[in-house]
């Protein structure tokens, strides 16, 4: 069973900044069904709460981490 190969890990609280992009869609009244796109880019504090977990060992931790889903509370970046 794969669970037998799980590796336990502890991760401390980490905060850092990174670039974040938003795309806003506006309807274009001058064109039927037209949509304009407004791109906005800013930098903000990004966080990872301390946690302990177990999973199969990483092959490339940095690359795999960038593809994982995360939930972040931007109002309290060190607590989410």
Number of helices: 1
Q: Tell me the overall shape.
A: elongated
Oligomer: single chain
* Strand elements, count: 4
Strand proportion: over 45%
Widest sheet: strand order? 1-4
Q: Overall pLDDT, averaged? A: 76
What's the order of the H and E elements? EEEEH
**Helical amount:** under 10%
What does this entry look like structurally?
The chain has 80 residues and is mainly β. The chain has one domain (2-66). Helices cover 8% and strands 50% of the residues. The chain is built from 1 helix and 4 strands. It has one helix at 61-66; strands at residues 7-11, 14-28, 34-48, 51-55. A two-stranded antiparallel ribbon has the order 1-4. Strands 2-3 form a two-stranded antiparallel ribbon. The longest helix is centred in the C-terminal third of the chain and has 6 residues, at 61-66. It is elongated and about 60 Å long. The two termini are 32 Å apart.
Key words describing this protein structure:
80 residues; mainly beta; two-stranded antiparallel sheet; two-stranded antiparallel ribbon; elongated
Topology summary:
Blueprint: E1 7-11, E2 14-28, E3 34-48, E4 51-55, H1 61-66
Antiparallel strand pairs: 1-4, 2-3
């Amino acid at each position: 069973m794969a669970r037998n190969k799980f590796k336990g890990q502890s991760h401390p609280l980490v905060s850092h900044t990174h670039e974040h992009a938003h795309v806003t869609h506006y309807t274009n009244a001058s064109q039927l069904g037209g949509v304009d796109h407004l791109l906005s880019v800013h930098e903000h504090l990004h966080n990872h709460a301390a946690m302990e977990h177990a999973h199969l060992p990483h092959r490339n931790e940095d690359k795999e981490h960038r593809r994982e889903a995360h939930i972040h509370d931007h109002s309290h970046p060190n607590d989410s």
